[in-house]
Each structure stands twice: as C-alpha cells, then as structure tokens.
Amino acid sequence: MSNLILDIKNLSISANNNSLVSNSDFSVRFGEVVGLFGESGSGKSVFSLFLLGLLNRAVFNCSADQAFVFKKNKKPFFNLLTEKKTDWNNFRRHFISLIFQDPATSLNPVLTCGQQLGEVFYLLKKTTLKKNCLLLLKEVGINNPEKVFNAFPHELSGGQKQRVVIAIALASEPALLVADEPTTSLDPSVQKEVLDLVLSLKKSRDLSVILISHNLDLINFYSDRVVVFKDRRFIENKINKPVNHIVYLNKILNKIITKKFDNSFSLKKLNLTNSLVFKDFKLFDLKNVSLSYGFGNKKFTALKNINLKIKGGDCLGVVGGSGSGKTSLGRILCGIEKSYSGDFYYDASKFSLVNSAQMVYQDPFLSFNPKYTVGDSVNEIIKLYKTSLSAKDLFKFVSLDTKLINRFPHELSGGQKQRVSIARVLASNPKIIIFDESISALDIETQFSILNLIFFINKKLSITVVFISHDINSVYFLCEKIIVLKKGFIIDSFKTKNLFSSNRKNYTKSLISDSNFKKNV
Questions:
Q1: Which helix (H) or strand (E) holds 94?
Q2: What is the value of pTM for the model shown?
Q3: Are 359 and 334 in contact (CB under 8 A)?
Q4: In what order do the strands lie in the sheet containing 33-37?
C-alpha cells in the first residue's frame, strides 16, 4: 500500500507543438506540504490546472506513464488522464480544491460572499446551509462571520477576500488542496496570517497541500519538501544538494539585501533631452492632506493629516499593509485623486501635474488595451505628449527586444509587460513616476532586473520615484527614504540606512519580521 496521495510518472504537457512540461515525475504524500517553486510564466499554473482537469484537451496534449490519485490505505481510485467529465466532476466535488492567486478576480462581484460559499453547499437545506457557512467562515479566522456572509467582495480587505476563497475551497472537504500563488497580492502581515491559516487547516483537517509560489523564502519556510520547476521539468531541491538554479537565485536575493546594483543600462540607448532632468527642485509639499470615501456611516478615511515633502530626484519608499492608504497617496501625487482636503503645493508655473506625473500599476496586463499591440500603446503616449522619442528607442532602453513591438499584451511574460509599462510612462518625459506594487507579482530574477531599471531611471535621469511596495527588501534596495503608513497615518519616517534601528516603531518592526521567512534552526 502506498503512502502517496498523488503519484505522477513521466508527465508531458504540450500545446501547439510547444512543450510546457517534459517527461517529469511529481508526487505528494498524505499530510505533506509540497512547495512548487518556479519563475513567472514557467508553467506552474498550467500544472495546477492539469491536476483539476481544467485544461482544454482539444488544445493541450497530456500524456504520462501513470497519473494516479490515491485514498488512504487503498489502491489508486482516480486517473488524471481520464477525459470523462462525470468522473472529473465527482473528483473535484469530493477530493481536490484550488485556491487561486487573486481573490478579487476569483469572487463574483455581484453576489454576496455567503451566496458564493452557499453554492458549494447546494445540497443542504437553507437553514443548515447558512449555519455551515458561518462555521466555515469562523474556521478560516474571520472575526465577524455574519457580516462577511452578507458582504459583497468589494467591501472586504484583500486578506478577508482570500479567507473567503479558502473557505470556499474547504467547503467540499477535499483531501488535496492546491494553493496557486495564494498570497502574492497581499502585504507581509496578511500573507503570513493566510499561510499560517493554511498550515493549521492542513493539520486540523489532515490535508495534503501543494503550495505554488515564486517566493523562494516563503516556499522553504512553509513546505516539507520543495520541488523546483525549471526548463519544463520538476527537480526536487535538497538541503545538502540544492538545485543550481536555487543557488543562483539565492545569490540574486543576496544582491538585493546587500544593495549590489547592475550597471548594464546606458543612456546611449535613448535620445534624452534636458526636460527629463529636474534635480533637487522642490516638487511637492503636502500639509495636513486627508482623503475620505463615502458618506455617513459608510464613510471611510483613507488618509489622515499627511505631511510630506518630495524633491526632484528623490527616491521615496512607501510601505504599509493592505488598506493603509498607499495607493490613495500615489493617486493624489499623480493628480488622479482630487477630492482631498488640506494643502498640496507644487509650482504650476514650472510644470504641469497632469503631464509630469505618471503611475506604473501592479498588474501590467490590466494596464493595457488587449486589442492594441504593445508598440501601439507606447506610440499612443508619444503622440499624446508630442515627445521626440520613438517606441524602438524606448524598448531598447528598457532592455526589450524591438521585435516585441508588434506583439499583443497576452503574448508577453509578466516581466516583459512591466518593462513595456515603464517604457510607456517614459514616453511622456515625466518628472515623477509612482510605482504602485509594480513588481510584487514577479519572480525574484525579474524583480531584480526591474529594480535595477528603476534605480537607473532615478539616478541617471534624475526622475523622482515614489516606490509603493509591501516588500521591505525591494524598498531597502532601491529607496533613500521610507515612510510607513498605517490606517491612513504616516506612523514612521526615516532614511533607509536607519531601517533596522532600534528606534523604529513596533509596526515597522513587525513588517520587517513578517517579510522575512526564516526557519528556526
């Protein structure tokens, strides 16, 4: 009898003659957490969709010597290579569940959380259904289950939404839980809470878990065993004999921590004008700026009495948890959000806020029109701002192959799309760029290259950078000054070199602690 819940031998997956997984083995034991680590776009999510039978077999060709799922102390009861829909429906209903990456897109915006959770309990009577839903919401750590049950997804924080998604995944009482990048969009504190929750549920429910992530420290911390997905193959990473790729990535992580910059970028790749240089000029002066949304009982204050000065050429890091007001501050600095109170000073005689401030968003895919090529998107900005730059020069400057100009957004990787986002922003000759969680969804190697590009833009072009992130390591690597937001207030402000000072506020210390996943040896 096997102690394996999942045993796959010699798996291959291909689409349109492109190999995605090649002759690979993968297994999970009962009660085990297996971490699956891979770079952005490596094919990790394709594998998770294969496990749930969600790949279109008319497009994807799947083959293996064996791909069996086992029940405890029994022979294999399900073959993952089957194409029978009824078998797959029963398998998904009773045995396996998936937690998706982005809870905001996983939940239906027009249904309450209770309605969506209740869909899993559709066989139960209405009175029993609500009772089961509330118990499940309580089990996943939601303090006010009744309120969340009746709430719509947009009324919840990112952490609460992810807990609802986990509750939906657990409702069918699965034996195998696949968590596909479950915390990428969350801040460190909530990230740790959600993963601690998954680990405690694994123990209380006797689950087996496949944890998929591009965060190496996170995978090592929460997994019993780590499998690296590289060059279309699964390779088990062992402590005494680490995979070469892991050794390489650890060196990159060490470069970020020790602030070792890459100087491969060159101004020769772009015909720049002096209009990009705005060094040491007092750009912004915010005094007692506050921002609220809604009215009456539903009024929410996003920012409270913000006092902040930003000079030309500064590189300011903005750190804080989900809902702390980071994005709202960025929107005010860009001139997008105008319904604030207080004083926001800038010299309108020297530059226009609308023309001089630009924003790079978290999800580059949502930033582009899917019907335009990425070259068209960049050229649109060049024409709008009437700059003398060209899309070809901008692509070269951000280290992109000019052949990509005629591709559509869905044909590029996450890192490539984010580079195009930066090229598009540079096309307007900005004085200040706000990066809003712009690298959080990228793997460590791509993060490092984007961070170096932002550093070059700030130092060599003297473009002011406001870098919003929940990743302490990235902020430490890039920025000279840091402010920490909590519930709309600036609770800490300091130079980056003083990040680890004992004078830091307790909340700042907790953010640093939660950002670093290290096992106690």
A1: helix 85-94
A2: 0.79
A3: yes
A4: 96-99, 176-180, 208-213, 33-37, 225-230, 233-237
**Residue carrying structure tokens 């596909």:** 180
Measured from the Cβ of residue 136, the count of other Cβ atoms closer than 10 Å reads 21
- Element (H or E) spanning 417, and its range? helix 414-426
**pLDDT digit string (tens) for 276-307?**
445 667 778 999 999 988 777 777 788 999 99
Instruction: State CA 378 to chain mean position distance.
Output: 24
* Per-position b or e across 240-258, b if 16+ CB within 10 A of its CB: eeebebbeebeebbebbee
Nearest to 111 by CA among 65, 152, 170, 149: 152
Q: Closest Cα to residue 161, out of 108, 222, 91?
A: 108
- Contact (Cβ atoms closer than 8 angstroms) between residue 369 and residue 378: no
Task: Collect all residues with Cβ–Cβ distance below 8 Å to 214 and sequence separation of at least 6.
Answer: 37, 38, 39, 40, 44, 181, 184, 442, 443, 444
Beta-sheet pairing, 4-15 with 18-29: antiparallel
User: Could you tell me which residues come within 8 angstroms of residue 361 by beta carbon, excluding any fewer than 6 positions away?
Assistant: 367, 421, 436, 437, 438
302-361, pLDDT tens digit by residue?
899 999 999 888 899 999 877 788 888 999 998 888 888 999 988 776 777 777 889 998
Q: Where are the alpha helices (DSSP H) in 107-144?
A: 113-118, 126-139
